[in-house]
Structure formats: structure tokens, C-alpha cells
Amino acid sequence: MERIRLHSSHFEFIFSHRSDLEGLNDVLISRMEAVIEEFSEDYQLTQRESEILIMIAGYGFSNHEISEHCRISEKTVKNHVSNIMNKMGIRSIRKLLSLLFNHVIMYSAHSNEDSR
Prior knowledge:
By secondary structure, the protein is mainly alpha-helical. Helices cover 67% and strands 7% of the residues. Strand 1 (4-7) and strand 2 form a beta hairpin.
């Protein structure tokens, strides 16, 4: 079984399973580490909240899947998701994904301007 390690200064977690889609997500997420770190800092997310954000947005994990990967209860996952949304002042996962997506676009536009 292949192990996947995703690491940045703000978070690190290891997966034991891999599909082609997850492999693609690993590449995308590794390229987005700086964006995700900035997003997490902007909303003052904890390390665990940042990890959960990645699992939701990057991998599309359910609360159950997150609980298995993090070895925490689903109730604890729900509490973390609730804390994330409270910090962001939102009430839905769709809004969370929209805010993250917009942040990625703004970060990319800013990076492109800096490289000119």
C-alpha cells in the first residue's frame, strides 16, 4: 500500500490509500500550499481546522472519512467544521468552498502581477 504525505509548515497528514483522482489532488494541493496557508491565517484556523479544510475542499471527504483519517469521532469533525464556519461567518460548505475558490483566484491574480 502506497503512503501519501502532504506537508507544509501549517499542516501535515498521511494517507494510506490512493486513487488516480487523489493523486491529481495531491499535485494540485501541493501547488496551492501557500494559498491554503494564507487562507488559514486570514481566518485564524488551527492546524487541525486547516487539515479538515484540505480534506473537504481538496479531496471531497465526508465527515466519516475525515474521522477515519484523523482518528477522531465524527462529532469532533462536526465541531471542527462548525468552528471553521463560525470563524468565517458562514453557514454552508458551499459558501466555504466558494470563499476558498475566490481566494485561490485572487492569490493567483496577485502572483501573476508580481511575476511581471
